[in-house]
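User: Assemble these into one structure.

Assistant: Restating your components, then the assembled model:
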Amino acid sequence: MLGNQKRQDDTQFYFVGGGIGNLTAAAYLLRDCGFEGKNIHIIEALPVAGGSNDAAGNAEHGYVQRGERMLNWQTYENLWDIYSSIPSLNKPGMSVTDEIHSFSVENPCYARARFLDETGEIMPCDSYGLSPAELKQLIALWKAEESDLDDVTIADWFDEDFFKTIFWHSYRATFAFQPWSSVMEFRRYTLRFFHLIIRLTNCRGVTLTPYNQYGSLILPVMKVLEDAGVDFVYDTAVTDMDFADGDGITVTGLHTLCRGKEGYIAIRKQDKVVATLGCMTDSAKFGSLDTPAGFDASAYPMSAQLWKNIAGKKEGLGNPDKFFGKPEESAWETFSCTFHGTTFMDWMEKYTHNKTGEGLSSTFVESPWYMEIRDPKVPFCKGQTDDTTFLWMCAFNSGAKGGFVQKSEYDCTGREILEEILCSLPMDEETRQKCRDEVASAIPCSMPWIDAQFQPRALGDRPAVVPEGSTNLGFTGQFCEIPEDVVFTEEYSVRSGRMAVYQLLGMKKDVAPVKPIRFDVRVIAAAAAAYLK
Ligand SMILES: Cc1cc2nc3c(=O)[nH]c(=O)nc-3n(C[C@H](O)[C@H](O)[C@H](O)COP(=O)(O)OP(=O)(O)OC[C@H]3O[C@@H](n4cnc5c(N)ncnc54)[C@H](O)[C@@H]3O)c2cc1C
């Protein structure tokens, strides 16, 4: 992993946040930039690294994770690049990239029950159902310039019937778009993932990690960084930055807060700071079997507050209020349920004709909560036994009253959320009761800012990875601007991290470009057939 050429200076790199963007950026410093671990510092507000890629628990008490991810082999250019240098923890001699690729080849996805209706029946989805008028609106969107799309929402662009099409359900269910999301971002998605249109309704070709992403992506990169002696500082939030007087952007100090105690890190001219700009899982709240997660967006989230503080001091650092101003639009909830038994998965296998894990996900498009359930292959968590099964759910309309429990999901206990799922499926009562009896844990998690990166934006609302005039400050994550690429992805964070370290060090190295897959004539022909079907 470590590069051969060591740097002779003592430049220190300070990363604010320990998510995948900064962890992989640190790995790039080791691999490509001659850095030693002791000169890299990762400051994280939480007691663990990994950011949104979390997972915890055990077979006895159950597992919990806020997020669950689909990756894409044809794109995710920089993610596959850095993980090809990171050894797998499970397959000796293999890189993480090779491990994930071979797992996906051996365990291909094919959803036979991608969309379910209000009675839980499997919906036909062999056509995207776009009318000629809607296709015209889509083509007009592709022809538009981003500068024409400032603050425009998807609902502003398309007519009402568009939101009843399988095309819309495919985009909402797969990527978490809302009608009020940015149409600028939606446009980027339809172009970046143009090749996926032939399989959005069956999830064929989705690249999955063997374990949850904390186990498969975070732990391996952490091992490399820890072995190299990278300095991790936990439980410490960076609350503000000081800048040198005058024009330009030069950070001179970081204000920190560790368990109520204020601190300060002086930044010298030659040192670099790379800050995660906003975090989608900030202010997440967990419930339990008998406690609702609730919903609390009363305070500006810690990660966006840092952004707001520095944007108030220097020009060109964007506009966090655009993304972190409407929690009622950006919030939704996820749900982690562990069973000591296989009744739920056995029933799903019979009903969907998919083996556990193979179908990937089923979305109840007519459920008031717009629920999507996933039942990953066993084991998905380290130490998971064969008879411990895991169900994960996300609901993109969590504020609505459930169809059965008649409450907002935020007000529901884990037990009640499971009830909503069980009653939404055409199960007999005896099976439902067995599922209830087998529950080991049921943990809701509300996230006020989970869709913040999709909020309508104008050009200039997101700063560049290295803003103009910056001598030592760069940004990573979902709220900086990277032309052509799409947010709510691991790739965006990894790409931003790689760009930040190369640019701040003035290296003449390129990051892997966004692949022009949509210009491949075979892709165009297949996509045209899928759109017109
Ligand atoms: C439910 C869900 C589903 C998802 N599905 C997919 C998917 O299918 N495919 C996909 O590619 N991606 C998916 N993602 C997105 C992906 O997980 C994120 O894009 C990625 O994890 C972001 O990484 P990051 O390093 O930029 O930030 P994060 O993972 O958010 O980490 C940022 C870290 O920085 C810390 N931090 C922030 N500010 C400060 C500060 N001021 N001081 C100290 N610490 C700070 C935070 O505490 C956090 O730990 C999903 C995410 C979720 C939650």
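The radius of gyration is 23 Å.
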